[in-house]
């Protein structure tokens, strides 16, 4: 049995464990619409992990509700993550539709905060130490939910031409099923089903933006916060089909034999994710939401903000130094020469512009910047930040409530060389500073920044506004989170204006 298949068996066993012998006084029991679950008490917080919200999945098919069970099932351990590369620390299984709940009490009607994990639709889970909901729950007297769902080829491989009409968006349908579970059950966990906030970072934010254009998600959430994650356009069906063809070739399958995909092992499907992307021309094959005219019939923020969700307040944010979070082991990028920068920028930006012209403009705007500082600033502005601006402007033009933030607080790791990188806002919002490679410990400065961001997100979840003016044109009010947070109108205006004249290409689309 290969590694992923072995984890499939182990993970399913953990999630469906038989009731333990712990007394009811020590372990709370909640009733769901499918059966009762037993959690655990840690201090003043009740935790339920690995609650099944969907039945075991059928590959490339929409999810379905779980079968009811008798007795009490343990909810004491996280459920398995969707099969993927690079997540050796967790069990993996195609049977991955599980969620986790942190609550102060099973009674009451508190705001509900549902976190959707990132990972570029390709990796990740709701079981990370970064997103443990205990501190956020206790700090704000809110109910916190995290979840797993199908990602990469399992959630987004577009196989409509081969008999799987829903396949390009089943990962999104999993999220909708999870939100339906929240609507139907969170009241029994002390939450208010009429006050549900979805929030997510990177790919999680992109998934949320996509949900805002999916009719089946209408009414399932009442606020939305996206952290360094945008989805201006989905993948078109023709490009999605090109990616499927390349993926099948990577698997050694002819297109006519695509249905054999349901019979091969999960490990084989994961291994083929390394197939080069035929649309982008670099990187591994991209899978994400598809404009399939079935579940998604318009782009989330093109040509405008999706009308169905204009009444939902949005909090849209980015970090100041997003691309410093993509450095990895390549520390040479901190010591680039001016000759190096154009070549590096060519594949890091999401706009089609001469990199040499970008360097020229940035050297004029920031004459004291080093080559590496120009690289990080320009690649950040042309990538995640540009998508956020398009979404904010779309909401502003529609008169819909949206609020902007930018995280400038420098992470202390390695003398601060990473600035405010991609993912830094996750541990700050959840209060899990020691779980972050960029922070690593609980300091007075980190605690203060974390409290500020936690308070902001909790206020937004509770009231629909975070404490500053909405993003309007031409003011562009933006909260700058730092040791001394403040509101700035149109921050980095010159950078914004430079890239605004160049068409934006959604990553992956």
Automatic annotation (TrEMBL):
It comes from the Bacteria. The keyword Lipid metabolism does not apply. Transmembrane segments: none annotated. GO terms for molecular function: hydrolase activity. It is an enzyme of class 3 (hydrolase). The keyword Hydrolase applies. Keywords: Hydrolase, Signal. Residues 27-472 form the Carboxylesterase type B domain. Residues 1-24 form the signal peptide. Its EC number is 3.1.1.-. Belongs to the type-B carboxylesterase/lipase family. Belongs to the 'GDXG' lipolytic enzyme family. This is Carboxylic ester hydrolase. It comes from Candidatus Viadribacter manganicus.
